[in-house]
Design a protein that fits this description.
homodimer, about 425 residues, alpha+beta, 8-stranded mixed sheet, 13 helices, 18 strands, about 25% strand
Chain lengths: ~425, ~425
């Protein structure tokens, strides 16, 4: 007999099949029991009738508690009211493992309790749904860039130079030398863009920031494309095409999950190109117009981002930030020398910045000057400067934090639920 | 006018197009110049005729040195002898950036020199080809598991417990606690298998091993599937299906790259299921039959692996290793209590172990006993033991080191060429 995963059961209506899984929930009504079984692919309502199964099967179903492992054989029957449109009329019910009382029940638990039991909390329907959305978005990232002929360049995690200061870096000993955990693959991608034209990296990145907000993790995944001969206008187009694609993909392929999460999908349906584009100078005007006290040269915090985001019905791209508040490698705007060709994309509904990117300086001498102005160690950047010595070229790229993207699409306010095992201040377990 | 990538030029025969790229090579013959341009997607032979272009274009083409950035406009013409089947008859040749003398030329360079210039070496045709094979294999991994309904579970890099000793771990300070860089996501995948049924992780892993062989890197990427209700027989089937798929995919989609690498593809064409399967006891017999001095309980090194591999024409799976030389979590063989249901897959042609996996112990008390026998700290494994308390289930998984797979498929003997920026003993730059 075939072992079938629950999501595939609609293809087996009328057949006798075997399902392996765990008890998600159970209801009893006299001589009928209605266990709901989950197997990671879906939820299956079963009907166990005392007069139709053996005493052993009845007893096993009766004893089965939440999260007990079960092995059920029965007939797949159409049932419009059940999730997935089918249910199982059980013929044999086995209980290979009786669970100890499961610590997580549908009642409310404190955050600390849930985070301490993260390895079990993953089984809850909401956590399950968020991580399935993550799975879909991550695969969407891979497909998007592969289909556009980008080459994956796995940038290193262990890096030799604390190029921009060590204050937020995790440090380790590398056979007698100091090494640091990477905060971005960008510097490694630029030479690779000269080799492959279009490249991206997608891996874990690290910030040792003593920050406890819902928008920060110490370890998070970031996807970073870098494209040779792409200038700022094209970068903005790439960023909005990418975000539109990911949202569309989640809407198309995560219907059940978004329903479980009670996500208002009308807000996501709206995420279509072109996205609104404003300059930093526009943003200052918009904010002061709403009575906020900001001036040219200020960086935007969560409050400012939310006010800007709330002025639009889809993600908004803010460009041309003051040179003084942005990274040393950003290309100056030829029409406005106080600002750089950098952009941030702010998600709607208060989910904050999801993308940051820029055109990079490709002139060797200007880049060298900026490195010196920022008091960075020139010798540590020789290899990075090399990209400007051997056939330099305009190029641009951005980074997207996956957890923020997943949080927005899923509609969960805290990043800790968007990654399987979050690493936060004072949280490195399990 | 359209900017076209070189690989797409065959679709533009007869059209005037613009190509951005770098000089790969150049040949001059009187009033004709034949620069070869690369743009990361392919190589394009150009024909520049003195009498057909402006003096500026002729001069630019004349001055263009290896790796100089060029911008060429011309007509795409069929040319059977050229790579890709087309060449360009140039109308305008621009030289946006003249390269300084490029340090890497077709002549031989020492390994240290090349590794110090890894950021430039990436542009060489062989390195380019290897990393394109890597790109294809990594995407193959993602597609293989996504298409089979596995959920991606990004396991954490920063881990709290040095569960199996700290000798080969990179250590860092985590806000006053000690943390270690992950060597495997397996322990984190097993609880996730209870939540999703089929899961995998694919990320960087770390070994602080003072080892200088061609088969070791300090930082390498590993893909690890873990499947609920999968027993040892099914694990072996999954492993061989996966390897067959990846090899087939590289053969289908990396034809040019494998040609550049002069890979003997007939050896790869042969990689079809079923793979030979032998037990560890069979392997001992095979080795002693060939005069090697090994006995039950010995671990196999590179020499033994090569002798075994050379006895077969495709990857071979060795199973049922002695309990004493394998990890604490491996399920004992019910028919042979001195061995465990673990397997290693050895690639042909001396490329060594590419996969290691096992069925995991799912009995709580047996696992606890093993943890104690191995003198591991029980408290650090409570969460891992929990998987056996709350509805335990048989499950299996394996890990594949991507660099070894890429080395084998590409036919490059040293792992350092299979990852963009290798991390080796005394090598963390660039």
């Amino acid at each position: 007999m075939d072992t079938v995963r629950i999501k595939d059961l609609p293809k087996h209506v009328g057949q006798q099949v075997l399902v392996n899984g765990w008890i998600y929930n159970k209801r009893t009504s006299g001589k009928l029991q209605f266990p709901i079984i989950r197997d990671g692919s879906g939820y299956l309502q079963c009907v166990v009738s005392k007069k139709e199964v053996s005493p052993e099967s009845w007893d096993a179903s009766d004893r089965a508690t939440q999260e007990s492992t079960v092995r059920v054989i029965g007939k797949v029957v159409e049932e419009a009211r059940a999730q997935g449109g089918v249910e199982m009329h059980v013929e044999t019910f086995e209980l290979p493992s009786l669970s100890e009382p499961f610590p997580i029940s549908p009642k409310e638990h404190g955050t600390d309790f849930l985070m301490n039991h993260r390895h079990l909390w993953l089984r809850s329907s909401k956590q399950h749904a968020v991580l399935r959305v993550r799975n879909e978005i991550e695969k969407g990232c891979r497909d998007f860039f592969y289909d556009r002929d980008f080459v994956l360049i796995d940038s290193p995690i262990l890096t030799a130079n604390a190029a921009e200061g060590t204050s937020t870096l995790f440090e380790t000993d590398y056979f007698g030398e100091k090494a640091y955990l990477s905060q971005s693959g960008q510097l490694y991608l630029e030479p690779a863009a000269a080799a492959f034209g279009k490249v991206y990296c997608f891996g874990p990145t690290f910030r040792a920031e003593k920050s406890k907000t819902r928008r920060h993790l110490m370890e998070f995944w970031m996807i970073e494309p870098e494209v040779a001969f792409l200038e700022f206008e094209g970068l903005q187009e790439l960023a909005e095409e990418f975000v539109e694609y990911l949202v569309r993909r989640a809407l198309d392929r995560c219907k059940e999950e978004l329903k479980t999460l009670e996500r208002d999908v009308t807000k996501l349906e709206n995420v279509k190109r072109p996205f609104p584009r404003i300059t930093y100078r526009d943003a200052i005007e918009l904010l002061t117009g709403k009575g906020m006290d900001v001036k040219f040269g200020d960086d935007f915090g969560g409050d400012e981002e939310t006010v800007i985001a709330n002025s639009f019905d889809r993600p908004v791209m803010i460009s041309r930030y003051p040179t003084v508040i942005k990274a040393f490698y950003m290309q100056p705007d030829p029409k406005d020398p106080d600002v750089v060709l950098g952009l941030d994309m702010i998600a709607p509904e208060g989910y904050g910045e999801i993308i940051g990117g820029s055109q990079r300086i490709h002139d060797h001498d200007l880049l060298l000057q900026r490195i010196k102005e920022h008091k960075l160690p020139v010798e540590a950047f020789q290899w990075y400067l090399d990209v400007r010595k051997y056939g330099t070229f305009p190029h641009s790229g951005f980074g997207m934090g996956i957890e923020r993207m997943v949080a927005w699409v899923s509609g969960v306010p805290h990043l800790r639920e968007t990654i399987p095992y979050p690493r936060m201040l004072n949280r490195i377990y399990p």
